[in-house]
Amino acid sequence: MIDPQQMVEGLAVCGYDTVVTVPCSSIASLLCLLDASKPLVHISATSEAEAVGIATGAYLAGRKPILIMQNSGFCDALNVIGSLLDPFSVPLSFLVTGRGGFGIKDEPQHRLVGKNFFLIAEAFEIPVAVLSPLPCDLVSQLCSLSRSAQVSGKGAVLLIPVGMISNSNRCVYPSERLSYGNSSKIDRVMLRNPSRRSVAVRAIRNTVPDSVFVATTGYTGRELFASGDIPSNLYLAGSMGCASAVGLGIALFGKSAVVVLDGDGAMLMRMGNCATIAAQKPSRFVHVVLNNGVYASTGAQPTLGQQVDLAAIAHACGYKKVIQTDDYSYAADLIKSAADSRITSPLFIDLWVSSDEEPCPRTNVGPASQTLRLRQFLNGSSKKNN
Hints:
Elements: H1 4-13, E1 18-21, H2 28-34, E2 41-44, H3 48-60, E3 65-70, H4 71-76, H5 78-88, E4 92-97, H6 111-123, E5 128-130, H7 138-152, E6 155-160, E7 186-189, H8 197-207, E8 212-215, H9 219-226, E9 233-235, H10 243-253, E10 258-263, H11 264-269, H12 272-280, E11 285-291, E12 294-295, E13 301-302, H13 310-317, E14 321-325, H14 328-339, E15 347-352, H15 367-378
Helix pairs in contact: 1-2, 1-7, 3-5, 3-10, 8-9, 8-14, 10-12
């Protein structure tokens, strides 16, 4: 059996510096220990897909992240693994608990995933090794995990049978962790004359040319590309809803200001990201939701983006400053102030735009090339803002 402290020490020996987790009862003691383990940075995510996004951003900023989650949660993140890690060549390491597997009795909801996990991973071309019960093998396996992820180009898994890691010591988390509230107000500046999204994207990009821009999948990325392709642009393909998580990972460890160009449909898909962003308090971070009320890339089906108060959601999550407006010039000025650290962040802008589209070229820079050049732009430097 592996002691949680041995696992933490093994991670450090193998060069991992950032651990992104989603809770699992079978390793509660390890998760508790990670909260107090320096110099490892521990980030708890609200979902597995969000965790993959955050770890991707950390990797782009030069960190060596590892993710910890259940096998069922890993399956929940398969879309992001297939549409983000694979095309963008992001080699992430995963520690995955094998719920429902290895002949160990578990809850019925884990049966199918536990029985078929190796087949699932194989289908996604993810190499899987099983954690040895011998402590003397731990460091070798953790270091091999990183090498396997590099070889696969998209990640690798070290599968942990339930009970393999000692789980005898449980944390009692202090009640003050449950406090909430936001004393700031929402600024609403609605002129009732929204512009085209492409016009807003171009104006925002030109206002803060030295910032990193992460664009959500679909037309938004194409419009960012059309506004001027530079190495600090990242155009996500697939992984809908994860742009804000990727941006968070970059903001926590990179040098530059980060602007996420999100969509209303994408934000609604993964609203848990907003809670994590507010809790992490990244500096010089701007989350712009280009709210046109439709899924433009799939045929303009209506979203709930203009029926749900997205600004109020961000405010409740705890963003330092929250704006709702259809004036892109006003939004651009605020983004400039946040990028220059003249106003507190994270800054959230619910920017209403027209649903009218104009022809826009597809990005001609391959995803893997985007990864390489953005890592070079960020220069591998790291910091922690909170």
